[in-house]
Amino acid sequence: MQKHRQFKDWAVQRGVEIHDSIDSAKLPERGLGLTATQPISKDTLVLFVPEKAMFKLDLRLLKKYNLHKTSPQSQLAFSAMIKFSAGSSVFHLWRETLPKLCNFKQCMLLYWQCQHVSSLQPDPMDSSEWDEMTPPSVKATFKRQLADWEKDLAYVKPALSEAGFSEENFLYYWIVVDSRSFHWKPAKPARASGSMVLCPFIDYLNHGPTGTGCEVLQTPKGFEVVPDRDYAAGEELLITYGAHSYDKLLVHYGFVPTPGTPDKDDSISIDHLVIPALPEDIKQRLQDTGFLGGYVLAPAANEICFKTQVAIRAILLTCNEWEYFVTNGEDLGQDASADVTKFLEELFLQWKGEIELKLNTTKKRIPLLEEKQGVLLLLHNRWLQITQAMTSFITGGEDI
Ligand SMILES: C[S@@+](CC[C@H](N)C(=O)[O-])C[C@H]1O[C@@H](n2cnc3c(N)ncnc32)[C@H](O)[C@@H]1O
């Protein structure tokens, strides 16, 4: 932990205020985090990161490389790559505390599936195998991330060779920014727009579901971290990165909470089951009324969303009954909820059977896949969460 002590001193010199009651620590299954070194009372200011200690994009540098119009994430990643990598960089102590590329290899789907990174080893697992092992809801989230990465890379490519960096170097900082940046809005001028920034020390904080972590407050001078409750010595302090589904945590942050612990932020997309079950005329009606797609199962509540209720009722009810439900959120005649549930149960049961076969195959395959084991285990755990959520829905929560 020597490098972390040095980094802490460096951060303090740059104006970061760290209360004696917290420190960084190595934690099982989650790299580093911040823990209480002694009891902490709710509302104690445990950490303050002033604006001057934040790492922001470097406009001069971006102009030099003609990158002032690329995405904010790309701009910050490029600036960090140049500034953190210089041999004599003032940021070298901070850089030393960041995960290594090999850590990202173990948990980031993007690392394995961005075929464009020319310096990467060819992936012996072909795309149909990845496709088979990735849950549809993860795929949808990943597709958006991949599209952003490809767009950013295409824009930055000429600058990379001009600056003497590889696509892999850029990918590393792109993931760093994706998984550990904050959004900062300066107090002045009044209409200043916000930007993505990296923040020393506060970036050690791991994620917990909404409402279960310390508050990160933006003040005119910087970010403050304030515990949401009393903490005992040894407890980890968490913040929430947002009300993210586990698919988003998997894709953008490289982890999924342990199976068996659904929280209310999670939702599972069931578009790939519901949409193909809709007759064409009903699909068109749902499209025209803004109800086509976006169907989810919420594992913590063991419920399907309103849009799914609407879509299945479009199959089961008359147009008049359906319109009444859409407008009023309740059925005109007899409550159709049980029929909706039954309709979905059949879809879920069929899919569950397919997933169980898949899980048996991947379980045998994972130990053979060496470097990719970490990512595949995450996908495996996500599949388990999906089957648990469906079982729970089918049995009304009695099996779980
Ligand atoms: C802002 S960093 C937090 C510090 C990080 N643990 C480290 O070692 O540098 C975000 C990363 O921490 C990890 N992480 C955050 N919350 C986690 C959690 N609840 N469980 C497991 N890993 C978590 C993920 O790898 C994520 O990409």
TrEMBL record:
PROSITE patterns: SET
One Pfam family cited in the UniProt record for this chain: SET
Domain SET, chain residue ranges per copy: 14-242
Superkingdom to which the source organism belongs: Eukaryota
InterPro entries the record matches: SET_dom, SET_dom_sf, SETD3_SETD6_MTase
Cross-referenced Gene3D superfamilies: set domain protein methyltransferase, domain 1
GO molecular-function terms, A-Z: protein-lysine N-methyltransferase activity
Protein name: SET domain-containing protein
The species this protein was found in: Polychaeton citri CBS 116435
